[in-house]
Automatic annotation (TrEMBL):
DNA-binding region(s), chain positions: 33-52
Superkingdom: Bacteria
Keywords: DNA-binding, Repressor, Transcription, Transcription regulation
Coiled coil: none
PANTHER family: HTH-TYPE TRANSCRIPTIONAL REGULATOR ACRR, HTH-TYPE TRANSCRIPTIONAL REGULATOR RUTR
Pfam families tied to this protein: TetR_C_2 (PF08361), TetR_N (PF00440)
Domain HTH tetR-type: 10-70
Organism: Massilia mucilaginosa
SUPFAM superfamilies: Homeodomain-like, Tetracyclin repressor-like, C-terminal domain
Name of this chain's protein: TetR family transcriptional regulator
Length: 203
């Protein structure tokens, strides 16, 4: 019976996040209330508060559920880049493009976080989460570039901070542009654009 109760609680939690995800796409985050989400999920507002402290906590849980593969890929940047620092960075970029194209849940969450969100009120904490993600990527990419320079694989004139930030802006900009208007091949053109940036660093 206890197992059944836990399963029911997890199912309710997932249904709340499913409803929130759909409403955030349709109405935007600020235009969606917890009552809207409760009605769409077929639960009470109390049920939502049992699972989530507020809308910001609900949004963060939804993000975590959809971006776990992306965050797992991010962790690989913590590993030593070895003999192929640029290949290491390229693999991460292609993972982002692949998730955006082929994982519908991740794509919806990326769209919400990129196009449907205002960092105000109870959602201001989400901005901190995105900044932490950005800073982790920049620190990892900068370290990888420095290692590449030290081992003679990248030009010694390369500025590691600029190279890392440039790659981050390329990835984020390509995903955002494709979500707004998917009129180009994100996987193919994205890889070509990333390769152009990375090849300019190569010794």
């Amino acid at each position: 019976m206890v197992r059944r109760t836990k399963e029911d609680a997890l199912a309710t939690r997932d249904s709340i996040m499913d409803a929130a995800e759909q409403l955030f796409i349709e109405r935007g985050v600020s235009g969606t209330s917890l009552q809207h989400i409760a009605s769409a999920a077929g639960v009470t507002r109390g049920a939502i508060y049992w699972h989530f402290e507020d809308k910001g906590a609900l949004f963060n849980a939804m993000m975590e559920r959809a971006t776990m593969p992306l965050e797992a890929a991010m962790q690989t940047l913590d590993a030593a880049a070895g003999k192929d620092p640029l290949g290491h960075l390229r693999s991460y970029a292609l993972c982002v493009f692949d998730l955006t194209i082929n994982d519908p849940k991740a794509r919806r969450v990326f769209e919400i976080a990129t196009l449907k969100l205002e960092y105000v009120g109870e959602l201001s904490a989400i901005r901190e989460r995105r900044l932490q993600h950005r800073e982790f990527f920049l620190a990892s990419a900068e370290r990888i570039v420095k290692e590449g320079i030290a081992h003679g694989r990248l030009k010694d004139t390369v500025k590691p901070k600029a190279a890392a930030l440039g790659l981050f802006i390329l990835i984020e900009g390509l995903v955002r542009g494709w979500l707004i208007m998917p009129d180009f091949n994100l996987e193919q053109l994205g890889a070509e654009i990333v390769d152009t940036h990375l090849d300019s660093l190569r010794a």
